[in-house]
Amino acid sequence: MALMAVRPSRGNTEVLRSGGRIGRYGSRGVLFCVGVICFACAVVFSLPTFCLWKLLFGLPCPGCGLTRACLLLARGRFIGAAARNILIIPFLAAACGVFSCFLADAVFHKRYLDAFLIVLTSKPAIAASAVLALLSWGYNIAIGN
Questions:
Q1: Domain contains 17
Q2: Half-sphere exposure (CA, 13 Å, Cβ side) for 22?
Q3: Residue 77 belongs to what domain range?
Q4: Looking at residues 5-27, what average pLDDT do you find?
């Protein structure tokens, strides 16, 4: 059993195990890798997708088609992905931004990801996301996605 202690250090938390330091993005990195593996399995094996909201209420949710859009995007079909759900465009932009900041943090040992996440969670960004989600939802309902 490894001994764990948590101590604050310059605004972030360091987790110590048996005297060694786990990297600042250790747990996020593991979750990212698990997500990539699950997504790769979905692409390779063409797993079925469904929407629980649509099954319960009979109407598509704002994210209906987003999983299929991600799968199409992984196969290089950008126009087909945007046709499934237009929210794939801001989602892709945010994912590329987080990934590039994650890499820049690892290479340059700066806090680009923290700054980017602050911007993504600001009130104007959340308001813009809500408006886009509502517009996408209206479009999904209109076309019966």
A1: no
A2: 19
A3: 25-143
A4: 49
pLDDT for 126: 92
Q: Give the C-alpha separation, 91 to 66, whole Å.
A: 9
Cross-strand partners of 74: none
Residue 13's pLDDT is: 47
Whole-prediction pTM value?
A: 0.61
Domain assignment of residue 14, yes or no: no
Structural domain includes residue 54: yes
Question: How far from 115 is each of 18, 90, 101, 102, 121, CA to CA, in Å?
Answer: 31, 18, 9, 11, 10
pLDDT in tens, 114-133: 888 888 889 999 999 999 98
Contacts of 54 (CB under 8 A, 6+ apart): 60, 61, 64
Q: Is residue 3 part of a domain?
A: no
CB atoms within 10 A of CB 90: 15
Give me the number of domains the chain comprises: 1
